[in-house]
Amino acid sequence: MPDMKRLVLDVLKPHEPDIREFADATSRCDGVAGVNAALVETDREVQTIKLTIEGDAIDDDAVEAAVADLGGSVHSIDEVVIGDDLIEQSDTPQDPHR
């Protein structure tokens, strides 16, 4: 399989450890060049964060293991970019207007 360049995950996590620890742990995985972690939702017992991970050859199994080691779980894989180039998604008529 060609190398993964971007991986966007919807992660459900406990309030602790905080979002910085999730970003740090996933940034240390093989093939990861950088991580953007954004808080999406907080409720009484858990938080939802969006992890956008980029690199030359992301080891997605290692990323999921790092999330699990911190007590989180991957709720969904929301975007994957694979191949030689980093391709942005294109707008289509069915996309909501921004």
Question: Which keywords apply here?
Answer:
Alpha-Beta Plaits, four-stranded antiparallel sheet, 98 residues, alpha+beta
Any overview of this molecule?
The protein has helices at residues 19-27, 60-69; strands spanning 4-14, 32-42, 46-55, 73-82. It has 98 residues and is an alpha+beta fold. It has one domain (4-82): Alpha-Beta Plaits. A four-stranded antiparallel sheet has the order 2-3-1-4, with helices on one face. Strand 2 (32-42) and strand 3 (46-55) form a beta hairpin. Helix 1 (19-27) packs antiparallel against helix 2. The radius of gyration is 14 Å and the shape is flat. The protein starts with a strand and ends in a 16-residue tail after the last strand.
Helix content: 10-25%
Q: Any low-confidence stretches, pLDDT <50, length ≥5?
A: none
Please give the domain count.
Answer: 1
Number of strands: 4
Head-to-tail CA distance between termini: 34 Å
Structural class: alpha+beta
CATH architecture assignment: 2-Layer Sandwich
Largest beta-sheet characterization:
4 strands, antiparallel
Query: What is the chains' assembly state?
Result: single chain
- Count of DSSP-assigned helices: 2
Shape call: flat
H/E topology pattern: EHEEHE
SSE layout and pairing:
Elements (H helix, E strand, L loop, with lengths): L3 E11 L4 H9 L4 E11 L3 E10 L4 H10 L3 E10 L16
Antiparallel strand pairs: 1-3, 1-4, 2-3
Helix pairs in contact: 1-2
Question: What is the structure about, briefly put?
Answer:
This protein has 98 residues and is an alpha+beta fold.
